[in-house]
């Protein structure tokens, strides 16, 4: 069972799990086929299942939302409250699931039908793409297929536990400028126009812009030690798959 199953990552994970012979039920705000609502979860408890995945979470970098008290509350509630609700349901279940995966703090998720690529594609297609500010800040990234793969790996494999960083192996040395050049190369377009730091601060506000202007270097050490094999370990292969 998964929460957040109708989103970008949730769709990829659901398809992968179904392809591997699993049945998937999503927890959603609205009812539907193969879904239960949060109210139903609260009233009736957790249905019998082998694993639970929490993918819920407001997009922190949503450019359509200002960083204010209301948005901060939505960000926290979308992660903390859903986790509390699932933890309570698991604790009270007659037959608790074998595995529980919480997805949070992954790299920039790249995919064909959503994620960061959807927001970046047209500027690059028009030849207006480029690095953010200096372009030297770390750029941790992961293909959506590998993020879904890591979650599935954690659900299926015995003995996998702890924090598995959701970033590609080559993301350790990737900087924002590398991503811009790879994106431009994949599209056959120049990637020379940087997005000034002040513009990023204006769009996202000082609290969020620091994530884009400074970045964070993340190493998938435990992910690799768990014997997960990345389908897209390097940026060129990931972008060729997404943009083909």
Automatic annotation (TrEMBL):
Ranges of residues in domain NAD-dependent epimerase/dehydratase: 4-35
SUPFAM superfamilies: NAD(P)-binding Rossmann-fold domains (SSF51735)
Gene3D superfamilies associated with the record: NAD(P)-binding Rossmann-like Domain
Domain of life, source organism: Eukaryota
Ranges where the DUF1731 domain occurs: 195-242
Transmembrane segments: none
Name assigned to this protein: Epimerase family protein SDR39U1
Species per Swiss-Prot/TrEMBL record: Phrynosoma platyrhinos (Desert horned lizard)
